[in-house]
Amino acid sequence: MRKLVYILFYLLPLFNVAQNLSKEDLIIIDSIKVELNSTNNDSVKVLLYGDWDNIVYYNNPIQGIELNQKIKSICEQNLNNSNLSKGQKIFFQESLANSHNNLGLYYSDQGKIEEAVEQHFTGLKISELINDSLGKANAYNNIGNLYADLENYDEALSFYDKSFKIKKMLDDKKGMSSYYTNVGNIFSSLGQDDKALDYYKTGLSIDIEIEDRMGESVTLHNIGGIYASQNKTQFAKEKFLLSLKIAEDLDIIERQSLTLNSLALLELKLKNYSAAYNYAAQSYKLAKEIGLIYELMDAADILYEVYFFNKEYKKAIEKLEEYILLNDSLTKTENQSSIIKENFRHEYEKQKAIDDKEHEKQIVIEQEAKKQQQVITYATAAGLGLVAIFLIFVFNRLQVTKKQKLIIEKQKKSVELANHQLEEKNQEILDSINYAKRIQNAILPPNKVVKEFLPNSFILYKPKDIVAGDFYWMESLVPTGNKKDTAILFAAADCTGHGVPGAMVSVVCNNGLNRSVREYGLTDPGEILNKTREIVIAEFEKSEEEVKDGMDIALCSLKGNTLHYAGANNPLWIVREGELLETKANKQPIGQFDNPEPYKTHTIELQKGDSIYIFSDGYVDQFGGEKGKKFKAKAFRELLLSIQETPMEEQRTIIDNAFENWRGNLEQIDDVCVIGVRI
């Protein structure tokens, strides 16, 4: 039994148990939850739910379905709003089509083929309505996969070809790679192994070129399947293990389970029952955790063979019964009928919509002719009646208007009084926040001091609200009294949240940095962060409630041409001779954290012309552009590399303008702090 893997297209800006997520994933999800609670913009909510869904796709399908249902609900509610702009309408239509397609993938993974078919065709109909080429291409590909699973290869190839034509037109190399993999699967199923290998190898070369590790894992697995069918067991095992290694690196449970089954089958064929059991047992456990029907069924079948060989007949019967129950739930005949019926309904509805429009035009013409005749017949009589009714109506309205005028005058005075009270209250709140801004500005180093110690530098500081959770910090150290020995400490910090809550946290964290240097006399960035974490946690532990707030930070110490750096989640970038060098931070915040480690200090010898950049995540996380996506770190790197011939103050202006142009009309989602220093 050879299990082929078809490439699916997951549509949102990709990827039953939280314990399979990495700590970094959990931190990102927590950040998404904070952003969801702080925004009322439905477009931003759709994008955030999409990012969350990408993280849990392979590890938590139940939550993935819930997230796509939320996206679907938000889009449907907004599409009922007649005041949407054209751009907003297209965004919600595309997102709605994508959510249907994603739900189809989830249901397909769970063996719910009929539900999967309905979702994919619904998404396809919306993509066709708005002429979304990419949406149509991905829907065609996924419907083709359903036909391929049901061994209706002619229909599968038809849908794959439709998808490939669009992908080629869009120069979508990932999409073209998936075409070669999926068509290779069909030739493999038909026993044409040499032809299948040619398609697989073409797809694999594209995967390697575009660094698509997921696609590479899928194609290696399928090549391994060909070698296994040809009894080239060593080659097969080599490909399966490479595929499994990538799946483990990417932490994709579904791919791990599938490939472990393939390795188990290979060992079973070689009568290595112990190895077969180990692989199958691992696969069974993973499939059981996240509800993968097909993988669970294959693992149960393999375990039955192993138990039977070992004369553990009771366990063998249990696995055989489980296999039969799972197999019965995936009746192919009913599923085949469902797809054909849905496809026919889709084509029929397209034609019916055309016919209905023509019929409606004819009815309108006939109705207009009848209306004209009725107008001529009754116009004279109706006119006299209307005059009489109008006179009575005018007299009545004069009486009513007098009464309404008195009521309106009274209500107007009440509203004006309430508005005045509300304005006073709002002004009091605004005055308090503005005063808090003055206090916060007082703890930031003045521009004059910054330029004194870092003359060739800039600071881009853009709070989301009046006050901010981001701040920049600087301290000069002259240990010998000689200015030549001066070490300059400077940092870009990002505290939990923004606005008033973020500002309050920033005061605590700023105080922790000052005490670490001034009170405890620390100069090493790693030791400063260790002590700051200790101070911040001690401050928050005074509260009766549990406080998990804290700070991400990049902290540098510059003395001559020697730079010492330590970071909590925020990295250091150095641009040198057209190349960007990144020094990664410790993946832990300044605050409460499970199993905290000491912060590491990195030492870098700088060269003349090097440019140093530290920043918070508000810049790269900003939504914008034509598709409302995040700016991302890659685009920020490219921007910095492109402006290295520009003076630092001009760099600040360019970086600021790039941010505002990307943001467009969308709201700023977080505080922004970027520091640049040239040696």
From TrEMBL:
It comes from the Bacteria. The keyword Endoplasmic reticulum does not apply. TPR repeats lie at residues 137-170, 177-210. Residues 450-679 form the PPM-type phosphatase domain. The chain crosses the membrane at residues 375-395. Keywords: Membrane, Signal, TPR repeat, Transmembrane, Transmembrane helix. Residues 1-18 form the signal peptide. Pfam families: SpoIIE, TPR_10, TPR_12. PANTHER family: RAPSYN-RELATED, SLR0380 PROTEIN. This is Tetratricopeptide repeat protein.
